[in-house]
Write a structure and sequence with these properties.
- Belongs to the complex I LYR family.
- By secondary structure, the chain is mostly helical.
- It has one domain.
- The protein is extended.
- The termini are far apart.
């Protein structure tokens, strides 16, 4: 019941207003920034519910999760209101997805709790083999220069 009420509240909130949850385009940068602060507050209000529902208490605290979320907002800083509006729309979609249990626990952990555990191994300075360089560039890799179809 609480989930339905929360999703209904999010669907009718200023961040996801008409028509049919379409993105709202801000008239100015201050308006877009105000909407982003409002959305951040909405997300922070849902953190305790997310912590309980996804059993995140054993891997992080609510304060740490809020800090990670704040870093996500800071990382995506831009001065273009249209870009801010699209990012708010995508963020609202993701919040509704989390609230509707379409995410699993490990998705939240790897995205917000411990993103460094999901880091791609950095490329080494080791030179590529001729085969691999040709393969990645789409050139023939067979010894005779023809495709091996």
């Amino acid at each position: 019941m609480a989930l339905r009420a929360t999703v209904a509240r999010l669907a009718t909130s200023q961040g996801l207003s008409a028509p049919a949850g379409a993105p709202v385009f801000s008239a100015s940068l201050p308006e877009a920034k105000a909407r982003s602060r409002q959305f951040f507050r909405e997300v922070c209000r849902e953190v305790p519910w997310i912590m309980r529902t996804y059993w995140l208490e054993e891997v992080t605290t609510a304060a740490q999760l809020r800090s990670r979320l704040a870093n996500e907002f800071r990382r995506a800083s831009t001065d273009n209101p249209a870009v801010i509006d699209v990012m708010l729309f995508k963020g609202a979609q993701e919040l509704v997805t989390v609230m509707a249990h379409h995410f699993q626990r490990h998705h939240l952990i790897t995205k917000f709790v411990a993103p460094e555990s999901n880091a791609i191994v950095k490329k080494t300075n080791k030179p590529q083999s001729k085969f691999l360089a040709n393969f990645l560039s789409g050139k023939p890799t067979a010894p005779d220069g023809h495709h091996a179809y």
